[in-house]
Amino acid sequence: MNLFDYLFNNYQIVLQRTSEHIIVFLISWSASVLIGLLIGILITREKMQKYTNFVLTLSSIAQSIPSVAIIALVFLFFGIGKLTAIFSLFIYSLVPVIFNTASGIINIDKTIIEVAEGMGMSKKEILFKVELLIALPTIFSGIRNSAVINIATATVAAVIGGGGLGVIIFTGLAHYNVSIIFAGVLPVSILAITIDSILAILEKKLVSKGLLYEEGKL
Amino acid sequence: MNYINYLIVNKDIIIKELFNHLQIILYALPFAILIGVGTGILISKHQKLSKYVLYLTSILMTIPSPALFGIMVIILGPFKLGLGKPPAIIALVIYSLLPMIRNTLSAIKSISKEMIDSAKGMGMTEMQILFKIKIPLSLPIIMSGIRNSIVMGIGIAAIGYYISAGGLGYFIFAGLSRGRYEMIITGIILLASLGMGFNYLLLKIESLLTPKGLRFKN
Amino acid sequence: MPIKFINVSKKFKDVYAVKNLNFEIDDKKITVLIGPSGCGKTTTLKLINRLIERTSGEILINGLSIDKIDKIELRRKIGYVIQEIGLFPHYTVFDNIAVVPKLLNWPKNKIKNRVIELLNLVNLDFKEVINKYPYELSGGQRQRVGVARALAADPELLLMDEPFGAIDPINREILQDVLLNIQKKLKKTILFVTHDIREAIKLGDKIAVFKDGEIQQYDSTINLIKNPKNKFIENILGINAKLNYLEFVKVEKFIEKDFLVTNSISNINKIEKECLIIFTNKFEGFVLKTDIKKGHIKIRNDYVTPDQSVLEALNIMFKHNIHCLPVIEKNNEIKGIIKYEKIILK
Ligand SMILES: Nc1ncnc2c1ncn2[C@@H]1O[C@H](COP(=O)(O)OP(=O)(O)O)[C@@H](O)[C@H]1O
Ligand SMILES: [Mg+2]
Is the dihedral of CA B97, B101, B103, B107 positive or negative? Predict the structure, then answer.
């Protein structure tokens, strides 16, 4: 039996599962990036700063819970189906975005913020021109992490009806059929690496060169 | 009440699978630490090599864990090792190697050249520099790499169920396919507490191992 | 922009950071706040740009309460420089300096010209630094950019909180000179915090000495040195204050007109004034009253320029055992003379 057999003979199935995987990923991940950024920003506003550490601790605990457990938990409440899968992926990949956005912002040197205030920047200007831009490397690593975690977890989410390439992999594992396993493993690995590379390029474009040497106080 | 009944009836199998799960992780760990940290230290001497290895590990780490399990089955298949604990352990070793090599490399890289030079200037040998300066100073970062690997490993080992390695994945995956909620709940509770528990424990060890001078409030 | 503090106090919890401040900061002058750490200097500064809100009292800028001005608008009119500099690490030198002009929506061209002008003002080669990021600059260069940034929108008021405190002594001196030069050209109202008395004497037109949140003495620099009000001020001044003063104060502050000019000394046997300056189309020398003895005239060639320090003038006087010197501008213009007895502090 040849490794590529299943892949070649059933390429329509593989393509269909791949596009399923991509769609589930894109929906859940973009939601977690948007909402994660929003929450990360909200909890670092002046009035909310009492809760920043609480949320950071909470999300670092959440990150230590295996994704399988989260998926099963969401299943308990919402049953089987695509929406359940998307929701559990959204929850799980939300955490790194919140964590990195918030920690990136609160770790900015306080004097820089104070100078920005002293120069007459409004709260909004400080957020968009100073805080987010300086925290961008950290935020980006959260977003990339979130994408990679999402794609991996989406594979597992096949077991609660998420569809995608996980279906192929688990079928292959269940039948101990190397050719089927491979037909799922190859595209999902390529997908993960591609998405991460695209984000890496985007990061390089968007992050200021001035932040590359952030060691040493400025 | 039903659930407690379930626990009492099934306590043997619960304990057995918990043991299986821990076994996979604890077998994999020493190898991963030894090989990972060792490789990290060895290649940290070579600038170019470190760069390539860092790059390679970051790519490998984006491969979803179920896919990696699949790859293991594929690779180990011809050796009649495709099912059971060994491939699960080997997959875990390989997956945990990545964050460990990464963190070790970047930890050693972050030690300032001046400090190494002044150690040389004081007449320390290469070995003394390694054990008295490089390792103690990189320990916190290396430890956080170890913690990440273990926490990740707890989740990954759950997939072991699919290749007959046993472990807590049984409760979740078998529970899902049989629609047995009490199994799923058991799986969630055990996996989540294992993840959070190990994370907490290792954080404590981390802070104990951190040289006093490097401790600072986060 | 003159600033007036009326009974201003700031309490953190129950402790006064500053208490009952009553003083006026002169328009277009450098006022220095000095005092030990924790005495309330930074608080005083931040009360003005409202980074800290006062507990009681009133602060007037140009006679107008600072509460009557929108906080953001107020700050855009005030330059702010701190010891940690706080350059934005993600911005180039250009973007750092352009922050406030951009907030004010200046046209692109105007901003660019302004940045170049400012870099020249702080003695930085704009071609070399304009596209660099803060991490690529030395500490001294960074603070020059910090000063340029504060001046960007041409604020009338500059608040400087120990701006040169973290810079090595040699570069600190240079930056102080840069600041004095800027002040000569631009005439801003500057409030300058330092804990270095040498710096205070060098830069300050007036000095306010703080202790425990209160002003101990507020006076012109020369008066403070001449008449320290108490032991605390004397200690702050230290033993070198007078010498420092002479070192930093320029000859131009002591110019007098007690002299005559001639273009020939051929038939002179008596001088009506202290000093006779010989001047054709350039400075040729001078003769003192006491230099004419039995028809013999001694001609001297020494002089000082207005921007030399008084200490340098004194040195020349001591060397030649004379009590006055002509003050000549570099372009050979007679400014006047400087006399020993006017300089010496009792
Ligand atoms: N945000 C704050 N909260 C509480 N106390 C403060 C705060 N800022 C300053 N203080 C206190 O106010 C006093 C004056 O501080 P500051 O103005 O910074 O002094 P200086 O700049 O002269 O060193 C000090 O005792 C300081 O501890
Ligand atoms: Mg201060």
Answer: positive
Q: Where are the alpha helices (DSSP H) in B61-84?
A: 65-76
ipTM of the complex model: 0.87
- The 10s digit of each residue's pLDDT in B111-165 is 877 888 888 888 888 888 888 888 888 888 888 888 888 888 899 899 888 888 8
Name the residue with tokens 């350059």. Answer: C87
**Distance between C27 CA and the closest CA of chain A, angstroms:** 21
- Which ligand number lies closest to the CA of residue A114? 1
Q: How far is CA A57 from CA A42, A102, B195, B218, C293, in A?
A: 16, 11, 15, 11, 93
Q: Across chain A, which distance is largest between two alpha carbons, in Å?
A: 71
Distance (Å) from CA C83 to ligand 2 centroid: 9
d(CA A122, CA A112): 14
Determine the atom of ligand 1 nearest the C-alpha atom of C40: 17
Between the alpha carbon of residue A181 and those of residues A5, A166, A172, B71, B75, the distances in Å are 11, 9, 4, 8, 11
Backbone angles phi, psi at A157, to 5 degrees: -65, -10
The Cα–Cα gap between A12 and A162 comes to: 18
Q: Are B191 and A69 in contact (CB under 8 A)?
A: yes
* Range B208-211 contact pairs with CB under 8 angstroms and sequence separation of 24 or more: B209/B139, B209/B140, B209/B143, B210/B139, B210/B140, B211/B136, B211/B137, B211/B139
b/e per residue, C8-19, with b = 16+ CB within 10 A? bbbeeeeebbbb
Give the structural domain span for B24: 3-214
Round to whole Å and give the CA distance between B70 and A174: 11
Domain A3-214 is classified in which CATH homologous superfamily?
MetI-like (1.10.3720.10)
pTM for the full predicted model: 0.87
CATH of the domain at B78: 1.10.3720.10
Burial C173-200 (b: 16+ CB within 10 A, else e): ebbbebbbebbeeeebbbbbbbbbbbbb
pLDDT in tens, C40-83: 999 999 999 999 999 999 999 999 999 999 999 999 999 999 99
3-state SS assignment for residue C220 = strand
What length does chain A have? 218
Q: Residue C229 phi/psi, 5° resolution?
A: -75, -30
**Residue with the two structure tokens 């950024």:** A37
Q: Domain count for chain B, please give it.
A: 1
Residue among C12, C13, C47 whose CB has most ligand 1 atoms within 8 A, to mutate: C12
